[in-house]
Amino acid sequence: MVNEEVPVLIVGGSLVGLSTAVFLGHHGVPSLVLERHAGTAIHPRAAAVTQRTMENYRAVGMEPEIEQIAETEFVQNGAIMAVESLGGKELDWYFRFVNEGVEEISPSKRIFVTQIGLEPALARVATGLGAEVHHGTEARIEAQDDEGATVVVRSRENGSERRVRARYVVAADGAHSPIRERLGLRQLGHGSFSDCITIYFRADVRALMGDRNLSVVYVLNRRLQGFFRFSIDLHSGFLAVFSTVDDRGERSRRVGEDMSPETCVAYVRDALGDPDIDVEIESVQRWAATADYAERLREGNVFLAGDSAHVMPPTGGFGGNCGVQDGYDVAWKLAYVLDGRADETLLDTYDAERQPVGALTTEQAYTRYVLRVDQSLGQENLMPVVHEVPIELGYRYRSAAVVGTDDDEAMWEDTREPSGRPGFRAPHAWIDAGGEKRSTLDLFGRDFVVVVGPQGEPWRNAAERAGRSLRVTLDVHPVGPEIAALYGIGDEGASLVRPDGFVAWRTTAGDSEAALAGALETALGRAV
């Protein structure tokens, strides 16, 4: 007996699951979110939020609120650097300011915010957009068929069960995803390579910090390797410990085997560089440093997102961001398929687009871990470092929803010099929209958009007819010569941009209803 039917069921109500619910709601799709824990995050788990993730939140109207939450928690735009200890020798500077050099490539900034601050806001907005969020529940896929999945939902409080029928399921159920395991989807990568802990503590570190604004502080000394984040008042923080070195100089990656208060206080004092500082341990979390990604992200009606799809070490701060962007990609595709605007085959492009991005991002996080933290893991077959900007903003989609990709096999481009080619994120530039300064990215987020050059007004009629024949909304936006050049369309050409802000097709030629309709049909999965 089925007790409830929903269009989309999301298993996992943390950062990725809640973000996916928001994105679905933005497209008018209600969802049921099931979270096994009793509420939202209880540990700060400070997250570095990239510009692309903030662009996703900007598209659904949440950027100002998230920035405000972040400002109450951390001093923003700080440095990322390495020290022997906070009060000791400075070793390296990875970023002097995390937004330095990237201010012009996006309307959004990199920020730091905790999941304690972010998740309640996501839950509230998701609920307001039609989602139901249930805590203290577990989910198990009982069966799948061509019309959806039957999911057994169990209360962790009293053990009661009910069956939910979902047209589609998004599995955002974490690194040890029971759904991924049940579906038999293999993981590729490097596996787990360290048994780590995160120590949440209270201590007054103002004197040790001095006048520095440090967002992330790597600690690399003769006793331990890890990193710090501190609260805005510098009276609390956390220390993640990756590995330790004993008196004989032997490295241990089994840090989690001793989580006693005495040991944790010693770790914090050593990393701070003050053996006498008062330290109060609030809690300790044990976790495994892992670099793995699923071989594929779709099995029938089920889609993997977040840590169930790819789990990576925190070096680079890529993990949660990659997961949020999974949700942004799958949300618009599910919305278009559910209401009939797109063919079911569009959903195949989720795996084609996001699996390679997850693999690339995981490898880059692992490379940074080896080079920054533990070179003893070995550098054989290590992917060369790719700059943060291409990893965060410049990855490329190759799928049936992208028309006319060239023969260049590059998986990314430097967004500081964007090409506007199909498969890449549409470039940001400031425009005047009705007397208001807006980003070109603000044109995207819900419908397909046709960006046309200064002599491209005839595309308007072509877009109206193509949209009408395919029963989708096509917005047309003319731009000046500079932005037209940035998009690579010239004076008379056009660029078809998807709801997620990625270029689906472009041309430098004059208006052609047949070419535009064909490109739109392909991007909707209808050309198959």
Examine the secondary-structure arrangement and name the CATH architecture of one domain. 3-Layer(bba) Sandwich
Q: Flag low-confidence runs.
A: none
DSSP E strands, number: 25
- CATH-defined superfamily of one domain: FAD/NAD(P)-binding domain
Structural class: alpha+beta
CATH structural fold name of one domain = FAD/NAD(P)-binding domain
How do the strands and helices of this protein lay out in sequence?
Layout: E1 4-11, H1 15-26, E2 31-35, E3 47-49, H2 51-59, H3 63-73, E4 79-83, E5 90-95, E6 111-113, H4 115-128, E7 132-135, E8 137-145, E9 148-155, E10 161-171, H5 178-183, E11 187-202, H6 206-209, E12 214-220, E13 224-230, E14 236-245, E15 251-252, H7 261-272, E16 280-294, E17 298-299, E18 302-304, E19 310-311, H8 319-338, H9 348-372, H10 388-393, E20 430-433, E21 436-439, E22 448-452, H11 459-470, E23 474-478, H12 481-486, E24 494-497, E25 503-507, H13 513-523
Parallel strand pairs: 1-2, 1-10, 2-7, 4-12, 10-18, 22-23
Antiparallel strand pairs: 3-6, 4-5, 8-9, 9-10, 11-14, 11-16, 12-13, 13-14, 14-15, 16-19, 17-18, 20-21, 22-24, 24-25
